[in-house]
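Long-time lurker. I teach an intro course on protein structure, and each term I like to show students one example going from raw sequence to a predicted 3D structure in token notation. This year I'd like something fresh instead of my usual example. Would anyone be willing to generate the tokens for the chain below so I can use it in lecture? Attribution to the forum is fine with me.
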Amino acid sequence: MDGPVVKAAEAALGDDNVELILPFVPLEAEDEVRTAFERATAARAEGPIAHEVADLYFFDTVVRLHRAGEGASFTGVKPAGGDVGPVIPLAERAIETGSIEKLYAFLSAELHRQLQSRLERIVALTDAVTTAERREYTEAMLGFQVYSHHLYKSMHRDPHEGGHPHG
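-- Reply from a regular --
Happy to contribute to a lecture. Here you go:
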């Protein structure tokens, strides 16, 4: 298991300091996290198996509450090393270095490829003759507009709109 929420949960348990995990959950979830922390801490003292089970229980609890705060579903804590795609590591690196250049270059190039590919499909369908071809053109054209609109809206909304802020 990895990711910032699990790492913070590990640090909280390791340092016996629940405050280290609280910024990762919404304010209204703090009581549940504190209760889970107390239970996990007590259970960890009962031996290696109880220690492992307690840790998993705590990780599961805080990740579930974190995801709920984002308005996202919880499908369980994932094993370490899962594929997070190319953007998360670039974003993490930007945070570490204070520079967005590599992240910006990647996202800009990917956006250009996506827009160009979608537009080329529309242009190829421009001379549609049959109803089925015109329908395909219309779907591609409207899809391009909606895709562009959603990108724009995504760029201008709060990071966790509908969920809890991380700030």
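Some talking points for your students: Residues 25 and 66 are 5 Å apart (CA to CA). Helices lie at 4-15, 30-44, 48-69, 87-97, 101-124, 131-156.
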